[in-house]
Specification:
single chain; 87 residues; alpha+beta; Alpha-Beta Plaits; two-stranded antiparallel sheet; two-stranded antiparallel ribbon; 2 helices; 4 strands
């Protein structure tokens, strides 16, 4: 029988993984959002949050830049933009 693999719940919040994001990050255009929340549902890191009605933002401290949110958006309100790592 297998037990839990995580010994301390909530420890993943300390491991900010956005520093090794791939080449791009999501940019939420915030113009014609339907509020379908598909971007929230498909995010593998659970870093897309609704900040106001039909206004969504991503926590770049955890975003890996996979682009799932942009691919699923029916209104194409999320675009993947090249990230400037030199800053």
């Amino acid at each position: 029988m297998f037990g839990p693999l995580v010994s301390k719940p909530g420890s993943s919040r300390k491991n900010k993984t956005g520093s090794w994001r791939i080449e791009s990050k999501p940019n939420f255009l915030k113009k014609n959002c339907l509020g379908c929340k598909l971007c929230v549902l498909v995010c593998p890191e659970n870093c897309v949050k609704e900040t106001a009605k039909n206004v969504f933002e991503v926590d770049l401290s955890y975003c890996k830049g996979c682009g799932m949110c942009a691919m699923i958006c029916p209104k194409k309100e999320i675009e993947m933009v090249k990230e400037d790592k030199s800053k």
